[in-house]
Amino acid sequence: MSHMKLKVIAIRPIRRIAHIPGTLEDEDEEEDNDDIVMLEKKIKTSNMPEQAHKVCVKEIKRLKKMPQSMPEYALTRNYLELMVELPWNKSTTDRLDIRAARVLLDNDHYAMEKLKKRVLEYLAVRQLKNNLKGPILCFVGPPGVGKTSVGRSVAKTLGREFHRIALGGVCDQSDIRGHR
């Protein structure tokens, strides 16, 4: 027999042993399948919009077909876990008291008059057009100038919970959009 045939004959039993039910490799696959089933249940019970639900269903189908060793498997799974954790269709009623907002901004932040004026304009527009779908405030600047603290003050003024999303290591928009 050739050297190659001997190798093949020797490897076959080893491969069979590796796939015996109850081995570590088999348990890892079962755990991942359980995680996928849990993700599917969370997607079904979540309150996400129809379009987001369709995207999640499509991604879960891709995830089932994908080998776990692929880097995209982890990315897709993380994306789906994020989608499930988002507070879909949950909102709070805003307190749009401009005087209280002015006092709070003056107490919390020294100077920054242009920024405070812009935030108060934002609140005034929200007060006039109550049905306005969430205009977004985006604070840009170097580290340490007060972007986070201003955001925290605006959230406190509106009576909303403050969430900070650090984008320090993000260098590609697909990390945010989730369409890798």
From TrEMBL:
Supply one GO molecular-function term: ATP hydrolysis activity
**What top-level branch of life does the organism fall under?**
Eukaryota
Provide an example Pfam family for this protein.
Answer: AAA
GO terms for biological process? Answer: protein catabolic process
- Give the organism the record lists: Myodes glareolus
Q: In this protein, which residues make up the domain named ATPase AAA-type core?
A: 137-171
**InterPro entries documented for this protein:** ATPase_AAA_core (IPR003959), Lon_Prtase (IPR027065), P-loop_NTPase (IPR027417)
UniProt name for this protein: ATPase AAA-type core domain-containing protein
